[in-house]
Input
Amino acid sequence: MKITKHTVDYVANLARLNFNDEEALKLSAQMEDILAYMDKLNSLNTENVIPMEHVKPVSNIFRKDMVSPSFDREQILRNAPVKEDGAFKVPKIVE
Amino acid sequence: MEYEVVIGLEIHVELATETKIFCDCTTAFGGEVNTHCCPICTGMPGTLPVMNEKVVEYAIRAGIALNCEIAHFSKMDRKNYFYPDLPKAYQVSQFDLPLCKNGYVDIEVDGKIKRIGITRIHMEEDAGKLIHDQWGTGSLIDYNRCGVPLIEIVSEPDIRSAEEAKAYVEKVRSIIQYIGASDCKMQEGSLRADVNLSVRPIGQEKFGTRTEMKNLNSFKSILRAAEHEQRRQISEIEHGNIIVQETRRWDDTKGKSYSMRSKEEAHDYRYFPEPDLVPIELTDEQISKIRKELPELPEDRVNKYINDYQLPEYDAKLLTVSKNISDFFEQAVTSGANPKKASNYIMGDLMKLMNQYDDEAIPFDGDKLAKLISLVEAGTISQNIASKVLSMMYETRKDPAAIVKEENLAVVNDESALSEMIENIIAQHTKSVNDYLGGNTKAIGFLIGQVMQKSKGKGNPQMISRLLEEKLNKLK
Amino acid sequence: MTIEQLHGKLISKEIKVEELVHQYYEKIEAKDKDISAYISLCKDNAMKNAVLIQERINQNKDITPLTGIPMAIKDNMCTKDSKTTCGSKMLENFEPPYNATVVEKLESSGSILLGKLNMDEFAMGGSTENSAFKKTKNPYDLSRVPGGSSGGSAACVAADMAVFTLGSDTGGSIRQPASFCGVVGLKPTYGTISRYGLVAFASSLDQIGPITKTVTDAGLVLNATAGKDKYDSTSSERNIADYNEYLKKDIKNIKLAVPRQYLASGISAEVKDSILNAINEYEKMGIVCEYVDLKLADYAIAAYYIISSAEASSNLARYDGIKYGYHSENYTNLIELYKNSRSEGFGAEVKRRIMLGTYALSSGYYDAYYKKALQVRTLIKNEFDKIFETYDGIIGPTAPTTAYKIGEKSEDPLEMYLGDVYTVSVNIAGLPAISIPCGFDSHHLPVGLQIIGKAFDERKILQIAYAYEQQSSFQGLIKEAK
Output
């Protein structure tokens, strides 16, 4: 699979990452290498094989609908780099 | 050219659980910003979700009530995208194996019944809320709503008019309220709808390009947005333009929709199975248990009202549109009110008052209406006064008897007081008196009215009529 | 000294908790400037706790085998109000408002947390060179890596700067550094120890486990940390009272499988020799060891890197500079805040895996990569299940080589990934596995023997490991590293 600059840009945008041209070039080569290695999976016949999403066949783990006290707001906000009026703050969002 | 509109709706309903979908924080509406939060619902590193059992139960109830198949195997998935209201940068939702699918509801528009297909119902978590800060320098994030459980009800594109869209949402809302899965308070955002709409020339098989309007939270805005979008698309086509598939924002105050192309970047949500949650497996027994315990649905109540209470079909349907009203009606009847009389008050005075105050519920209990009706039946107050008392009850929530006493509204049964009034009226209205004496017996109606007016509506009408007749006959 | 030994001394009051804790801080002071295993220390708290725990011992109240034992944990387990960095600039100043379940459990066991340990950033790596803060050295040779990602945890035990430590293992991150540092590292069955409070790398593979000096100690730590947690839906309901239950049971009926593929190309000759010697030891004990095929071993790395990177790309999306963590100063709008915070806050390897994972999940590639990998996962699990129909355990090397030089491999990511060849399939199949020392190479670097068991069969692999540990002439060689 050829990993073009365009693919790197597209994926980087989805992942909210920046790469300069040099980094992008290196990354596309590395990704190409790694993906080429991964393509070895294609030599396995997986027709009708159920994908294993969970390694343990467990289902129906639920909790009761019982309220516990929430955390102090200071605790929720203590690591926030920018906050105002008890809230996390981000640059103005224009819709 | 004649066009046909094609509408599909996605309705998001916040479930009536006490706690959020994956943590023990309260779902209570309101509260200071970021005070209904914990490390789990704010997506702190290391935290994990655990499914609230009530969410699954409510979602199954909704599925059964909306005639869906309930999946024996269902799982949660992650929908990945960055937005500040989504602290984990993924929403836990359901992708390819929703809990419920292939359902329907029947709606009635212009007396005709139409079946609207429901593609699926899935469970997911709500996002937080963005507030624009007062200085305009940025946006603030409140995560109180983040993690509140939602179900998303996706309809088939079976809807063919704005009215049908409104009727569909009304019907779904009513059913969800009946089964107790949500209060569906649209003002609080606990029910909101996304309208997917396209138009096509009548007779054309292929769907037109659709647009989506998100988060409409009143019946009025659903109706107006759909009507407006239909007109807009037809006009675009007639001007030779093509419709762009996009999300549009409906501005209800301006009555216009706006393109949101800025948010239209590639929707590559990279769904994958949520590894932190285990699948949900249901047996037929579990499903039928929930089915058996399902609260009464509107149709059940319509039948009961017609058969047990002998109400006209019209009354029965109108009373059951909203669960709040239907519950109120049943309270009144249980407290001894005559069903038809209770129905008349509700469909008349009370619905008018609810409209006037833009309320979703009557602010007092049905037993008070029963008390009011018994005051009328006992002759303590007149029919006219009853309406007045009802609007005072609506405003003050006081007991009808208390209002009648405080406001001195009881019927005047004092014969001597009424006799005096009658004598005055006879003296003042000689023409009507003479007409009556001359054989025009209908003239007595006018005189009775005059006496009633004099008594400010409180005179006992039977007594007035008897005394008036006696006195007039003496003049013969 | 081991947990077992120290426990005796603490209970007999031969040594006081405060003294012991103090001694360990002295050791850390003396050695860690060379080894750099610790990211942070919590001495004030530890000394305070030591007094309280001594009180417990004096009153003979709530005593567990870990009471008063000084330990340390990998810095990806949340400790309330104290830094949990994950070895990343992204979380350099992050102070969680809550404790990981495992931290709570250790606290109630009465063990004393000394500090938190270095690791590859977000546990991605096999050498601890990907830490944003420091490079941990192998106590056997300071010019070499300790392995990774739990390199700090393994080096710490090897240098006896804590009696035991916890690491986390997503594709070998406990076992491989244990192998490189000559200590015991146990990755329990997926779901054995709660993941609540473990900063997620790949949710379906991550598992916490102990790094100790002896097999017995590993069982003791497992006893204190395992169990169902209501905060982790994937934690197991299984209730095992004593993981060391089988240690002294007769080993005669045990049958071991040796995958041919684990001793084929890619393995260093010296590692292979040590493993063959170990097999020989087992045979001497009367245990049947037979060669088997683990044909899919070759595919495990590909499946592993797809699954783990895909999950990581989603798990690490929450680091956006808004709620916690690194916040770029350089932005004018939201999208720049996201991109710059993430690009400046994450290191190269983390970004590479996020890119790989995002790609594997992106529109049009899901089936070819992610779904395919999950299908291969099923096949790998089936292959293991088949072997366990006949055998009690699978033995082989933990890593293809011994510890390599710092800087030797970190340039080529694929080459690094291939070093996980013997460990990743265990995570893919959710099985338990232990790495125990089984010899030295010619540079006097330790070699690790891996024993893989059936799901939830930790007791048996501990038994198999213990038998080797008791017989092994290597036992005498395990001394405190310099």
